[in-house]
Every structure is written in structure tokens, then in C-alpha cells.
Zinc-finger
Amino acid sequence: MTIGPGLIETATGSGGIRPRSSVRGATARPGHDKRGLWIAMYPFHWVPADGRRHASLDKRPWGNAYPSGMLVSTLCSQEVVADATQEAWLWRTCDDCHSEARRVAEAVLKVPRMSV
């Protein structure tokens, strides 16, 4: 489901809102997709922990995920221990992290872009 320019909402596996760049056929680089829509790259990442999928601004040490056991600060102002298991990605999204992630995403989309 499309939320707005550069955003989609996913049903499972990602934590709710993802950049449109995750959609098959779109570019993974910041910029415009094939239809001319701006693709936003957000400063937060999703991490399953404490029975919910949380959003965090913490840097990931490697790859695309926080490793299991890593202490992570979340957008809901908690410190949680990451759980990188496949099942953990099926947990519900933390409502407070979701609200804050939307606020951050909307702020990113409002930043003026330079044309190249």
C-alpha cells in the first residue's frame, strides 16, 4: 500500500513503513525512481526486540540487520536487546516507534532536493 511519495506500508517483515526503494524494480539509490518519484532514504532502521519491531537511529555494525544480543536505543526511548531471528520479524510493530518513524520520514521528505 502506498503511504506517500517514496513510502510504502508493508504487511510483514519490515516494521511498517519502508522506502519505496525496497519495491521490486525501483532503484536502491537515493534519487528518482523510473516514474520520477523521489525515493527517500531514512536515517532509521527497524529492529525486532522485546516482542515488538522497533525503529532505531543506532548505526548497524554490519550487513542489513542488528545482530541478536546487541543493545539498541529505539525511537520509543527504550534500550532493547535485538533479536535477529526470522520469527522476530513477524512481531507487531511498536506503536510509539511507528509514530516517530512516520514523523522522521515526513521530515526527510520535506527537505529540499538539488537537481543534478
The chain has one domain: 2-110. The beta strands are 2-4, 7-9, 17-19, 31-32, 38-39, 45-49, 52-56, 71-73, 79-81.
